[in-house]
Amino acid sequence: MRKPVIIIMAALFICLSYGITWAKKPDVKGSKDHSLVSRIPNFYISSYKDIEFDQYEFQLKKGKKIVGGRTYQITYKQQKGATPMSSIQKVQNYTNAMKKIGGEVLYESKSSATMKVNVDKSEIWLRISNPFGARAYALTIVEKGPMRQDVVAKVLTKMTPEKKVVLKNIKKDKPGSRDHPLVTRIPNFYISSYKDIEFGSYDFQLKKGKKKMEGRKYEITYRQQKGATLMSNIQKVRNYTNAIKKIGGEVIVETKGRAVMKVIADNREVWLQVSNPFGQRAYALTIVEKQSMKQEVTADAEAMLKDINQTGHVAVYGIHFDTGKSTIKPSSAPAFKEIKRLLKLDPKLNIYVIGHTDMVGTLSSNMRLAESRASAVVKELVTKYKINKNRLTPKGTGPLCPVASNKSKEGKAKNRRVELVEKI
After folding, report:
1. Whether domain 301-422 has CATH 3.30.1330.60
2. Taking the CB of residue 183, how many other CB atoms lie within 10 A of it?
3. Residue ranges per structural domain of the chain
4. DSSP letter assigned to residue 54
5. Are strands 392-398 and 351-356 parallel, antiparallel or unpaired?
6. Whether the predicted pLDDT of 156 surpasses 80
7. Which among 390, 229, 394, 223 is positioned nearest to 319, based on CA atoms?
8. pLDDT digit string (tens) for 77-116?
9. Nearest residue to 421 (alpha-carbon basis) of 398, 393, 402, 400
10. At residue 127, does pLDDT exceed 50?
11. Is 224 exposed, middle or buried (0-12, 13-18, 19+ CB in 10 A)?
C-alpha cells in the first residue's frame, strides 16, 4: 500500500471580485478539494470523481505521458455574479502555485497545463484545462502509484483481505449465484445477474477475428455496493489479467475496458472475458470451460435398424446444431457415419428425416427451424456421405411431437432431436 501524501496547500494568487453579493451554490455531495491545492475563490465543485486506480494521458511539450495511480477528476464552475476569468488566468494561477512548492510545469498553453510535483517521495501529476468556457475549469490529478490487486485465482492462493470500507444497505448476491471456482470477485461487489449453462458457446473477440468456445458457460454480472470507492475499468480488468498470469494463464487480448484470457486448470482449458458494459460501478465475467457436449445417446446402425423394423421410426440424438440455427456441428460426425451404415445394412430402406425442436420461441420460428435442420441433415448425407438423395425426404414438425415435458432442461434436450421414419 502506498504511503499517504503529506498535505501541502499551495497558495494561489487570485483576482477577487468586490462589491457583489450572490447566492452561492454548494459543492456536489461527497466532493472536496484535493489536499494538494485549493480552488480559485468563487468557484464550486459541480462534478467529482475519486477513482482508486486509473490511467490518464498527460500532454507534454513533445508527446504524451500515461500515468497511473489514484485519480481525481474535479470540475469547478463559477458562482453566479462573480467576475469572469480568462482561461489563461486560471491556468497561470495553478502553474504559479506549483512552481512555488517546487513543482515543474511540463506543458502550458493559454487553456491548459500539465504539472508534476514530488511530495514525500510521492509523484503527483496535475492537469488544468478549460473545456467548458470562461466560467468553469477542470482539474485532473493523479497520485502515481501501483494498482491494488484484489482478484486472486483460487487455484493459486487464498483471497487477499478486503479493503475496509464501512458500507450501509449491503446488497446480497442473487439467490442461487456464486463466484466461479477459478477466480474471486473484486471486494465490495455483489452478483446481480447469474447464469450457469451446462453446455453453451461464446464468441471471444481476439485481436484478429473471433474464437468460438463450447462447454460449460458462466455469465456473471457484478455491481458495486453503494458507498464503495469508485474503480476505473482498467483497474477491474487488470485485477483479472494479473491473477490469471500468476497461475500461468495467457492474456490474449487486453484493452482499457476488456480482456480475454485462457488458462489450463485441473486439466481443463478455461476461457475468460472480463468486460465493462455497464459503466464504472459494474463489470461482467464470461467463462467457458472447454468441453465436448455430453453424448446422451450413442447412434448405432444395428440398433437403429431394429427400432425402425419394430416401430417404424428411431430418434437420433447425436446430431448437434448451433443454437437457433441449422448449422451442423463437427461433433455430429459419428451419428452421420452410423446413419450411412444403417442405409447400407438395408439398401431398400428409404426414410423421412424429421426435424424436432423444443418450445422455446414461437411456433412459426420453430417450424421453420425444424424444416431447415432436416434439410441440412439430408444435404450432409448426400454431399459428404454420398447417400442417394432419392432415399431421403426432409420434413419438420417443430415442437408438435414432444417425447418429454418442455418445462425442464432435460425434457427440452430430449425434444431437440432428429428422427428417421421409414418411408413406405
Report:
1. yes
2. 25
3. 43-144, 189-290, 301-422
4. E
5. parallel
6. no
7. 394
8. 999 988 888 999 999 999 999 999 889 999 999 999 999 9
9. 393
10. yes
11. buried
Q: Is the pLDDT of residue 232 over 90?
A: no
**Which band of pLDDT confidence, cut at 50, 70 and 90, is reported for residue 132?**
confident
Distance from C-alpha of 251 to C-alpha of 259, rounded to nearest angstrom? 7
Contacts of 276 (CB under 8 A, 6+ apart): 233, 236, 237, 257, 258, 282, 283, 284
Neighbouring C-beta atoms of residue 3, cutoff 10 Å:
9
Q: What is the pLDDT of residues 42-69, one digit of tens each?
A: 999 999 988 888 888 999 999 999 888 8
3-state DSSP assignment of residue 2: coil
C-alpha distance from residue 231 to each of 51, 72, 125, 284 (Å): 5, 12, 19, 14
**Residue 150 contacts residue 187 (beta carbons within 8 Å):** yes
Cell numbers of 206, please?
481476439
| Residue-wise DSSP of 184-246 | -PPTTEEEEEEEEEEEEEEEEE-SSSEEEEEEEEEEEEEEEPTTSPB--HHHHHHHHHHHHHH
d(CA 199, CA 288): 9
pLDDT in tens, 162-212: 344 456 678 899 998 999 988 889 889 999 999 998 888 899 999 899 999
User: Under 8 Å CB-to-CB from 333, ≥6 apart: which residues?
Assistant: none
d(CA 137, CA 410): 61
